[in-house]
Specification:
- It is a single chain.
- This protein is mainly β and 280 residues long.
- The protein has a single domain, classed as monomeric porin ompg (Porin, Beta Barrel).
- It is built from one helix and 13 strands, in the order αβββββββββββββ.
- Strands 1-2-3-5-6-7-8-9-10-11-12-13 form a twelve-stranded antiparallel beta barrel.
- Strand 9 and strand 10 form a beta hairpin.
- It is globular and about 55 Å long.
- The two termini are 25 Å apart.
- The relative contact order is 0.19.
Length: 280
């Protein structure tokens, strides 16, 4: 998930003389913040953001390639702000045991922003790498519980707003309930924000997802969630809703697509999402 620019008016950039600085650096700060909190975390079955408690199985792999395009427009104090961006993320999961996976994710991102039609930000490149472990510690009668801790490694160029410039960490609690043809998943997470001294250090995340198998190999999915805004002066937390489909071309190969809408002004207006997953 990429929130390229949240609400630009929530951050004030100043130069060494205390004057208002270039909006380019404001945008850069927003991009880094979004990168640290959400962009580098490997989420659930795309296009869902909420993860499920399922694992690959000992000795098995899953390779995912997911893409997303984001768009946001708003006006603050008479200033028109427009941002677009996207990412392509490659994620490899490996089952170290039946109930535990290791997950490695490397995203490539691009972002552009305009203020009153004038471009103030335009960067692209590799972002921060994420290494995670998922451990399913309970499973009975269709109910599964798991923990998913992880770290983000600063492989992106933070000077260009492509990474956080520091190691990051997070942990998520995952609950899943299977009741065919339905499945329900809930995530509650904590993200340590070491990005900037003037931002909130403790970020929470909560989300709920459901899938429904409408016919063999085809599922419709829905997802809703909210997360604490790292901006200390922000008046709204970013919230979203997602709708999409997952189609199993073969037992080991899925393709998917979805649309994400922002429910609050601190979230992107809308995003288009598409991806594929191959298990072997």
């Amino acid at each position: 998930m990429l929130r390229t620019t949240r609400k630009v008016a929530q951050i004030v950039a100043t130069d060494g003389k205390g004057e208002i600085g270039s909006m380019r650096y404001v945008i850069k700060g927003l991009v880094v913040s979004a990168m640290l909190l959400m962009h580098t975390i490997a989420w659930g079955a795309h296009p869902l953001i909420t993860d499920d408690a399922g694992t690959q199985g000992k000795g098995k792999f899953q390779l995912e390639v997911n893409g997303q395009y984001d768009s946001d427009k708003e006006t603050e104090n008479g200033v028109s702000l427009e941002s677009t961006g996207g990412q392509v993320a490659t994620t490899l999961s490996y089952g170290v045991m039946e109930s535990a996976d290791l997950v490695l994710s490397l995203p490539y991102q691009w972002a552009k922003a305009k203020e009153d039609g004038v471009r103030v930000y335009d960067e692209k490149g590799v972002s921060d790498t994420t290494l995670e472990a998922k451990w399913r510690f309970f499973e009975k009668d269709g109910l599964s519980l798991a923990l998913k801790p992880g770290v983000s490694i600063p492989t992106g160029n933070d000077e260009k707003g492509l990474g956080a410039g520091k190691m990051g960490y997070h942990v998520f609690f995952i609950g899943s309930k299977e009741a065919a043809p339905w499945a329900f998943h809930v995530n509650v997470g904590y993200i340590g924000n070491e990005n900037k001294v003037d931002e909130e250090k403790n970020i929470w995340h909560a989300s709920l997802a459901t899938t429904y198998e409408v016919m063999k190999n085809l599922k419709v999915v829905g997802n809703v969630g909210i997360e604490r805004n790292p901006g200390r002066t922000a008046d709204r937390d970013p919230a979203f809703v997602i709708s999409g489909v997952i189609y199993s071309v073969a037992e080991s190969f899925d393709i998917d697509g979805g649309v994400k809408y922002g429910l609050t002004s601190s979230e992107n207006d809308w995003s288009l999402m598409a991806g594929m997953a191959f298990r072997f």
